Every structure is written in structure tokens, then in C-alpha cells.
Amino acid sequence: MIEWDGQEMDESPEQGRRRRERILPLTVAVFLAVLSVSCILIFYKYLNNAMFQERNSHFIEITDKTTLIIESEVVRYRDTARMAEHLLMQKAPEGLEELPVYLKEISRFLELDQGTVLAFDSEAHIYRSDGRTGEWRNTEILSGGEKEWEVVTTLDTQADDSLYMLFIKALDSPQMVGEERITHVGVAIEIGIFQDTFEKDIFHGKSHVYVVGENGCQLFRHRCEGGFIDSYDMLEAMEEYSFLHGGTLEDLKKSLEERESSSYEFHYGSEKYFVAVSPVPKTDWYMLTYVPTRVLGAHTAAFINATIIYISFIAVLAVILVGLILYFVLDRRGSLRLIEHQKQANGLLRDAADAAKAASMAKSDFLSHMSHDIRTPINGIMGMTDIALKNLNNQERVLDCLKKIQGSSGHLLSLVNDVLDMSRIESGKTKIVCGPMELKIIAGNCASIVGGHLQSRNLELVEEFEKLTHPHVLGDELHLRQVLINILGNAVKFTPDGGKIYFRLREISAEGDMARFRFEVEDTGIGMKPEFLPHIFDAFAQEDDGNRSNYKGTGLGMAITKKFVDLMGGTIEVESRINEGSRFTVEIPMQIDREYEEGQEEERSREGTLSGLRILVAEDNELNLEITQYILEDEGIEVTAVMDGQEALEAFADSEPGTFACILMDVMMPVMDGLAATRAIRLVDREDAKTIPIIAMTANAYEEDKRRCLEAGMNEHVSKPIDGELLFQVLIHHLKKEQK
């Protein structure tokens, strides 16, 4: 019923239908918006934490290397003091009046431009190479019996209050010079020699560097612009500031005691600072380096913001795609409406993709590269989505498209992981990871991803994959995918309609545990000039030819491809002729997966192996828990779910031995995290507490994260998002191992 001028009127069926049609899209839009914002906030928090860890590690690495400056100077002047002893022992002057002259000759011989050679007699008199003499007040040090020692101090013979590093060596045999007995020699160096070095090498003068003793008392301070902590006892001074990340002041003191490098973030007034403590090798000194967070994180902060904008845009596109597919599948009320909605969605996606492309051109070289690689699987998703929407009544065709979309989405996820590791790549820390993979499946997935480009093109992609003697190998799947997709994408890009692209795979040799594989991509495209071929793998290299003006790209793809092939120990070659086409040949050695081959003799039946088992799952995120439960219960596994580490410990301790076949443990949880829960479970007083497989399921996927999980007592590490097949393989592997 509705009111009109005070009178109630019945709502017609047509009006009700229209009202529902207006409400449904609004409801879907609100739901998708809330879901997108939630995912982006979670991702931002994770990315920010990952970047903090990376900055922390990088800062420690820099300060550790800087301590080598001090170490090298200490070693140098220790050796200088020993050489001075050797020269004095060879020939001592006859009288004390000749001693300063002789010390000056030693200084000249040792080329000691910035230092002074000293000699001490048994009465603690000092004789210097510059002619000065005086009394040494620390007589107890000379009589302490130590052969060598160094100290930061002032010299009574110097008119100013400058600090000196003093390296003293006791003579193996005291020398008589005149009537005095010379017992020690030394070298004095003004500690300010570090000033210029620190000014040039550490954050371009934006850092504050202190050298302290083992008690935290200041020995030397790098004089940089601006005021900072001015205290003799640096540890006492640090008690005034609140620590934000990395630990507390007590942790910093513990690092000093144990001579370990560490880094922390704290509030200095209204600004955030990082402080790194690093022991100086071969001394009992430490270096405290302070640098503003805005300086240390200048590049990573911009990188996080750019990445969040870019990934947010991709997340919105993915959510819109999934929402459109579900909406159209559920609402089959006419092909005309489906086509209309499809055109509207594709128009929005095209506009969004164009906007993303325009924005990416203004980013750094890295973002230019990533935009090229990310758009490849997106195009595959869009192409398969287009086919699925046109074949909604063909269930097999839609299922095939969804599988290919899943493959492209997996590659897209791999690229996002690579975004998180980009700071390592830029600093030369790119690591090749050896994991199990099947080459034909990888090659097929790459062909499917690139196949999304062909939906609107008159091109034929011909797959010529030979039978492989060793199809299962250990290698870096992510970087191999990127190499193949880069080359295939270029073939599609530079081949006009009506052409062909041949994608070949063969095993060319095998010896011991290693096999060598050849990948070939040959096209009938526009080709390249001979004079350009030597430069094809240079960064930003593009052939300057009017015929190629429609194919301009970033010029980074082949340079990155060559870098990855080199890191994998392979080779890449190219042959090309103008208007005839190009052929890229990649050869890569890979380790044969012997464990997989041996496992084929014991091929398992999954239902018989996993069905009926009971597994304890600890996961505080309800969405992740729901997904994990679905994956496991779909295999016939009984799941007991808990929301934090404390509940996991109690559930295990209260159960009968043998109740649970395995524990899947998240790492970051409230009350008690997964690492603490694992350690506690291993200490429960019963036999299965030491043997039950505990598998980490976490979004923390760095090598150090895996190492911490294993050190806590876990058996395996599976990174999120969870791959069901990989999880089942890990479960079967550890359950078989436990049965043996």
C-alpha cells in the first residue's frame, strides 16, 4: 500500500518489480564497497608491517657495514702500534734527547700523517714524535700487565680538549734509553677522523652517530647538523623516550650485553626516529645510529602509497568482475538485459583500465614494469569473463573459463607478492626459490593467460609441447612464469592479425639430478632490424622505427626477462628478420624432483588417506577460518576450530592422545600467538605432543618467517592464501612420516 494525497493506493506488481530492481543493485554495490574497503585496509596493514620489517633489516645492514669503518681504523692503528714497537726494539736511541727525533722517524716511516707516535717510560712520562713531552695520568693501565689496549681519552700534553683514540703496546722487552727504561709505545689518533667519513657515508648527513662503551657511555659523537640527544650516558638518556616498534629499551640493553645488532623505532619529541645498535668488531665498543623515519622510509612510504592505490584499483576491478558474474548467473531473465549489463561492465572496465594505464605512466620505472606484468593476467581474466558471459547456458564452457580465470588470478597474486619483495630486488637481493613444479602445466597456464589477448584478435597460438622425460622439477615458478609470459606477450603484441605464434617446450639433456629444458616462442610478426638485436636486453631499449610506432611499450620487459633468466642459471637468445618474425630461445637447467618420482610408486588415494581424520585449526580471522574449513571438510576431514593460540593449547591438552592427526596454526593471533602456542604444546607432558604435525598457515611468507616457525617447533610453513592441493600434499607428507 502507498499513500497519495492522504489516500492509500495498492502498489501494482510492475511498480513492486521496479522498486526491487532499484534496491538490488544498490544492495550489491554497498556490499561490494564494504568488502573492498575491508580487504584494502587489511592489506595496507600487512604491507605497512612488511615494509617496516624490510626498513628495519636494511637499516641494521647499513649500520653493521658502517661499524667496519671503525673496525678497519682500529685494526690499522693496532698494527701501526705493533710496527712502532718492532722498529723501537730493533734499534733504540742512546739518549732521551734523541727519542722524539727517533719517534718522528718512525712516524714518517709508517706514513702516519694524521697521528702521533708515543713512548712511555717506567715513570709514566710521555715522549711524542712531535717533540712534546708530559705526564700520563693513568699509570695503573701501564702497570696492569696487559699487552695491548686502546682507549678514547684526552692527552695531557695537548693544549685543547680533543679526544684521541690511543693504541698502546707493551714492549716485549723494555728498552733502556739513556737512564730511563721505555716500557710501552703507542699511537694517538684524533677521533674526529671519523667525522668526514660518517658525514659522507651515512644517510648524507641526516643521521646522528654515537660510539659508546659497553656500559653505554659516550666515547665519540658524529657532529651533524641540528641538535639531538646530548648526554654522556646514552642508555640513561633513552629512558625518556617511548619505543614504537622492534622492542623496548630493555631489549636494546640486552642487545648490547649479547653483542647483537638490532633496530628500534621510537618517538623523539614530535618526530619518529629509528635507532640501530651494532657492536664494533674486535673491540668492546658499540655504535648507536639514529635516523629520522621520514628519511629512512622516504622511498618505501611513497612505494606503499603507490602500491596501495594500484592494488586497490585491481581489487575493485576483481570484485566488480566476480560480482557481475554472480549477478548475471543468478539473474537469467533475458539475454538482452545480460548483453546490456555486459556492455556497461566492459565499458567501465575499459575506462578504469585506461585510467590505471595513464596513472602508471607517471610512476617509477618499477611501477611501469609492474603495470605491464599485472595487465597481462587481467587481460586473461577479462577475456575469459567475456567468453563466460556469452556462454552462460554452456556449463562446461563456463567451467573452463573459470578455471582459466583461476590460473590468471594465481599469477596475479604471485605478482602482488613480488611487489612486496621489490625493495629486495632493487637492493640486489632477488632470490631464486626452488619449489616443486610441473613444467607442462606451467607452460599451459602461461598459454592460457596470454590466450586472453587473442579473443579480439585473428591470431593462432600453436602449442608444441614434447613429451618430457622429467616433467616434475624443482625451480622458481614465479620467475619462470614471468619470463614466458613476457616473451609470449611480446609475440602477441608484435604479430599482426592473421599471423601465428608457436610455443615449444622440450627437454634437451639430463645428467645426474639436473635436466636442461628449452622454451621457444616463434612468431610471424613484424620482426626487428639486425642493428637493434644487440640492444634488445638493455633497459628502456625500443627500436626507433615508424613501422613500430603502434607497438611502443616501456622498454623494460626484455631487460627484466634477461635478468631473471641469468638468475636461474639459463641463457636467452633471439633471432629476427624484418617482416618475417622473431624467435626467442630460453634454456634453463633445473633440478629433477626425485622425491615426486619416488612418490609415484606409492600413488595415494586422497579419500582413503585423509577422509575421517580430525584436525585442529587455530585461526582468528572468521573469513579465513570458513575457507579453511570448507577446503578440509570437502575432503571428508573433521575440523575442530578455535580462535586463538590459548584455545588451541587448551583443546589439545584436554583431548585424548591421538584425537587430532594434525594442527593447522595461524601465527598472528590475539591472546597467544601461534609461535607461543606451538612451544607450549610441545611442552605438554604426553608423547603425541612431541610428534603431532603442526603446520603454520600465515600471510607472513618471508624466509625469516618460515625460519621462526620451524624454530618454534612447527613442521611446515604454508603461506596464505591457502592452495588446497598444496595443503593436502603437505598433510599427506607429514602424516606418512609420522606413521613411519
Fold blueprint:
Layout: E1 2-4, E2 7-9, H1 13-90, H2 99-109, E3 115-121, E4 125-128, E5 133-135, H3 139-142, E6 148-153, E7 164-177, E8 180-190, H4 193-201, E9 208-212, E10 218-221, H5 234-238, E11 243-245, H6 249-258, E12 262-268, E13 271-279, E14 286-292, H7 293-296, H8 298-330, H9 335-360, H10 365-390, H11 395-420, H12 422-426, E15 435-438, H13 439-451, E16 460-465, E17 472-475, H14 477-493, E18 500-511, E19 514-523, H15 557-567, E20 571-577, E21 581-592, H16 594-599, H17 606-610, E22 614-618, H18 622-633, E23 638-642, H19 645-654, E24 662-665, H20 674-682, H21 688-691, E25 694-698, H22 703-711, E26 716-719, H23 724-739
Parallel strand pairs: 16-18, 22-23, 22-24, 24-25, 25-26
Antiparallel strand pairs: 1-2, 3-4, 3-8, 4-5, 6-7, 7-8, 9-10, 9-14, 11-12, 12-13, 13-14, 15-17, 17-21, 18-19, 19-21, 20-21
Summarize the structure.
By secondary structure, the protein is α+β, with helices and mostly antiparallel strands. It contains 23 helices and 26 strands.
Give a quick set of tags describing it.
47% helix, 22% strand, disordered N terminus, 7-stranded mixed sheet, elongated, 740 residues, 23 helices
Can you give a write-up of this model?
The protein has 740 residues and is of the alpha+beta class. 47% of the residues lie in helices and 22% in strands. The relative contact order is 0.05. The N terminus is likely disordered.
CA-based gyration radius: 35 Å
Residue stretches low in confidence (pLDDT < 50, at least 5 long) are 1-7, 358-363, 420-425, 602-608
Mean pLDDT: 78
Number of distinct beta strands: 26
* Main sheet properties: 7 strands, mixed
How far do the termini sit from each other?
73 Å
Number of helices: 23
Derived structural class: alpha+beta
Estimated share of beta-strand residues: 15-25%
Instruction: Please state the overall shape, judged from the principal axes of the Cα atoms.
Output: elongated
Q: Level of helix content?
A: 40-55%
